[in-house]
Every structure is written in structure tokens, then in C-alpha cells.
Amino acid sequence: MSQIITQRSEADVQDASDAIMFGSLKDRLDFYRKEIQYETTMLSSRTNAYLGAQSFLVIAYCSSMANINPQWGNIFSLVVSILLSVLGLITSLHAWSGIKAAYEIIDHWYLKQSNLLQSQPKMSDAYDDSPLFAKRESNQRGYRDALKFSMRSPWIFFTLWILLGGFSALIHFIAIKV
Prior knowledge:
rod-shaped
């Protein structure tokens, strides 16, 4: 039999401490730190996979440019090197979106952690009144410096692929004119 509830009973009213998702401030800080660690691990995995793919493409590009077959070597090295350059550009653009997303999530959790530490000064002090977290660790610039390599590598390789593709096209068109 269904029952319509029109008013709250005493069992429905919760204590203010029960309404908090975390049992303590330390639990909240631990949660933030675990999220930061998880997202940093994900960012590291994405960066490693991206750099592995880029290293393969660079080796394939160099190998294609070294083709000296007299019958079809020139056209092969032109077509394959430009295709590899385009593939490098595409993978760089796709990697950028995943790396940027992870960076934004890490930024979010660092901001929450920083706000928690700033709002609760006692929380960031150890028992001997020295800071538990270094200033560099709890400010925005510190972790952003640590993530610069992951953030910049897609753009560095994007630029490299433009230069390599342009170089191979230039070399082949100069050779055709001569």
C-alpha cells in the first residue's frame, strides 16, 4: 500500500554533521589529494602514450626521407613524409584536447584544496607549527609549472610537423625544378 508523506518525521531530520559528505576536514583533504593524484596519473599516461606515438612517427618520417630507390624513391618520400606530417598534426590536436581536459580537472581539485587550506589555517600546520604543505605546493603557480611539459608537448610537436612537412615538400619541389 502506498503512503503519501506530507510532513517530515524525526527520523528524516538529520544531524548537521551527518549532512556533511566528509567526516572531517582531513577526509576532505585526503579526497582532494586522491583526485589530484588520479588525474595526474591519467595525464601522465596520456602524455606517455602521445610521446610514444610521436616518437614512432618521427622514426617513420626519417626512414621515409632516407628512401633512395631510383625508380619511386622520390615520390614515396614526398607522399609518405607529408602523410606522416599530417598524421602527426592530427594526433597532436587530439592529444591536446585530452591533456587540456586533465589539466582543467587537476586545476579544479588544486583550487578546492587551496581554498580548504586557506580557510582552515590550523589544518595546514603540523604539530610543530611548521607548514604541512609548502607554499609552492598549495599555490597555483607551483603545480602549473609541474604540468608545463605535458601542456606544451602537443604544441611543440604540432610545430615540428608543420616544419617537417614543409621541409619535405620544399626539398622535393626544389629537386623537381633542378
